[in-house]
Design a protein that fits this description.
The structure is a single chain. The chain is an alpha+beta fold. Among the domains are: about 50 residues, no CATH class; about 120 residues, 60s Ribosomal Protein L30, Chain: A, CATH 3.30.1330. The protein has 4 helices and 5 strands; from the N terminus they run H-E-E-H-E-H-E-H-E. The protein has a 5-stranded mixed beta sheet. Strand 3, helix 3 and strand 4 form a beta-alpha-beta unit. The longest helix is centred in the last third of the chain and has 21 residues. The relative contact order is 0.07.
């Protein structure tokens, strides 16, 4: 029996090596699908998990795959929000306005941050201890009910003549109301009003000059006596006024010179100069028409205006009552 010669054994690896050496190709080995690596994007935001800083929450690639968070919903994202749990303003880095008394005035600008008050008073309340309508900060007698024209102090009648002191030309000496509270032997040509000293006579000057005529000296002396009796009237403005018969600049200069001349007479009679100031207003404030002689005469005048001092306002952080 003829024997069949056996072929030599060729390993599979050697056959596949034939691809390189020109030998017959061997079939490629199949790799299981489970072994293939697939890029993952768990939150489906287009950023692969390997590069996603927030792989469980969708967010734009510009933020590394993390979403924009704004827990307090104030428009300032948490990453930039200094107060992420309290709704606030962008200009305050997401923090709310600090207004402890809830009066609409921020604590930083509120002079009374623990007490509500209007904005026009810088957040401080209006206090009126004696309930007389005059705020304590303007009230010279804050614990006594008074009247506004006396800066909150009550009206008094020191001499018992039925004329209240603030209207009495002679508050320490009794006299009839018809003579402004002064004895009849001392005729009065001055009346105390809320904002001025009303003159019952005119102040006369030499024509076209600032020289006070002697016949007006008694009137000005009466003004001095009244102001000395009322030291609470701390400042009086002597105003000079003219008609329009001369040019405005010239009339203003003349009225200023006349006001200063009257002031000099008052000081010469013993009134403290710091209580006075002079102002010439020329023809700017006529009382009557300048088309008639009586009207022009009325417009040529001297007035005594009681100057109201501005009340002191409490400083921020000062003592509160």
């Amino acid at each position: 029996m003829t024997s069949v010669p056996r072929r030599p054994f060729v390993p599979l690896a050697s056959l596949c090596l034939g691809l390189v050496l020109g030998a017959p190709a061997c079939a490629p080995t199949r790799v299981p699908a489970a072994a293939v690596s697939v890029a993952r994007d768990t939150d489906g935001d287009g950023v692969e998990d390997a590069q996603d800083r927030c792989p469980q929450y969708a967010g734009p690639a510009s933020r590394g795959g993390c979403p924009v968070r704004d827990v307090d919903e104030d428009g300032v994202e948490d990453a930039q929000d200094a107060c992420p749990r309290e709704a606030g303003l962008p200009e305050l880095r997401g923090c709310p306005v600090a207004d402890a008394d809830r009066d609409g005035v921020q604590d930083a600008q509120d002079r009374c941050p623990e007490e509500a008050g209007p904005r026009e008073r810088d957040g401080c309340p209006v206090r009126d201890t004696d309930e007389d309508g005059v705020p304590d900060e303007e009230d010279a007698c804050p614990t006594e009910e008074g009247i506004a024209e006396l800066r909150g102090c009550p009206a008094r009648d020191s001499d018992g003549d039925t004329v209240a002191d603030h209207q009495d030309n002679c508050p320490r000496v009794a006299g009839p109301a018809s003579n402004q509270g002064c004895p009849a032997r001392e005729p009065q040509a001055v009346v105390l009003r809320k904002e001025r000293l009303q003159l019952l006579e005119r102040v006369y000057f030499e024509g076209g000059t600032a020289t006070v005529q002697h016949r007006s000296f008694p009137l000005l002396d009466n003004v001095v006596a009244v102001l000395k009796a009322h030291p609470e009237l701390r400042k009086v403005r002597v105003e000079g006024h003219t008609d329009d018969l001369i040019e405005p600049e010239a009339s203003r200069a003349l009225s200023q010179a006349r006001a200063e001349a009257v002031m000099s007479r008052l000081v010469a009679q013993g009134l403290a100069p710091e209580r006075l100031e002079a102002q010439g207003l020329g023809q700017a404030q006529p009382l009557e028409s300048n088309f008639t002689a009586p009207g022009r005469a009325a417009n040529r005048r001297i007035e005594f205006i009681l100057v109201t001092e501005e009340p002191l306002r409490p400083a921020k952080g000062g003592t509160r009552r």
